[in-house]
C-alpha cells in the first residue's frame, strides 16, 4: 500500500501526457512561444510583495511561541518551503520551514510544526471558500447543470471537520493511541509523544490569540489579492484576454487541484482545470495549457530562489 502511494504523482504526469497528445504539441508550443516576457518579469517582481506578506503572517504565529523571529529569516524559511512544496506531491514539502523556525528561534520542533499547521489551515480554508464562490459563479453564469458546487461544499465541510478534530487534542489522542501502540516502534514512541505534546502546546498558544488569528486571516486575504494580480499578469503574458475578476474566480479551483497528491507542481491537474474553466470563456485548450506551463515556469523561478537558500543552509532531513 505504502509503495503504491509513491507512484501516485505519476497519475498527474500521465494526465498531462494525455492532455498534450489530445490538444496537440504544435498548438501548445505555438501558444507558449507567444509569451510576453515583460509581463512575466513584472509578475515575478511582485513575488517580493506576496511572499513577504505570507512570510510575515507565518512569522506572527512563530512569535507567539517565542518573540524575535526576524522578518528576513522568516522570509528565507518561507521561500525554502516553497521550493520543497513545488517538488513534492500535494505541496507537503512546505512543512520543512518549521525546522528552520525551530533552529532559528530555539523552540521545540512540535511547536514550530504547530505554526505551519495553523498557517496552512487558514490558507487552505480561504482557498476553499474562494473556490466554492468561483465554482458557484461559473456554474450560474454559464447555466451549467453540474453538481460540482455541492461536491465542493461537501469537501469543504469534510475538511473543516477534519481540522476541528485535529485541533481537539483529546479526540486526536484517543484516535491515534491504538495505531500508535501497534505501528510505531517503541524506540521512537518517546520522541513522538514529546512532539505531540509540544505541537498541541503550540496550537493552544496561537488559538488563545483571537485578534492575532483575525490579523493572520486578513493578511492571508491580502496576500492572495496580490497573488491573483500575479496570475493576471501571467495571463497577459500568455496573450489571454481575461479579466482579473475571472482569474480570481478560476485560480482558486486550479490551486486546490494542485494540492491533490496525484501530481507534483500541479502538472496535469492544473491543466485539466484550466482547460475546462477557460473553455467556458471561449479560450482554447492550447492557450490554457500554455498558461499552465507559464505558471509552472513561474513557480519554478520562485523555487530556484528557495533552492539557493537551501543550498546555503541545508535542512536536517533526519528531523522531519
* Low-pLDDT stretches: none
Structural class: mainly alpha
Describe the global form.
globular
Number of helices: 15
Overall pLDDT: 84
What's the β-strand tally?
Answer: 0
Strand content: under 5%
N- and C-termini, Cα separation: 22 Å
Count of spatially separate domains: 1
Radius of gyration: 20 Å
Query: Quaternary state, please?
Result: single chain
Helix and strand pattern: HHHHHHHHHHHHHHH
> What fraction, in percent, of the residue positions are helical?
over 70%
**Biggest β-sheet description:** none
What do these coordinates show?
With 320 residues, the chain is mainly alpha-helical. The protein has one domain. The protein is 79% helix and 0% strand. It contains 15 helices and no strands. The two termini are 22 Å apart. The relative contact order is 0.17.
What layout of secondary structure does this protein have?
Blueprint: H1 2-5, H2 8-23, H3 25-32, H4 37-45, H5 47-65, H6 71-86, H7 97-105, H8 109-141, H9 148-167, H10 169-183, H11 186-207, H12 210-237, H13 244-258, H14 269-280, H15 285-312
Helix pairs in contact: 3-15, 4-12, 5-6, 5-8, 5-12, 6-7, 6-15, 7-8, 8-9, 8-11, 8-12, 8-13, 12-13, 13-14, 14-15
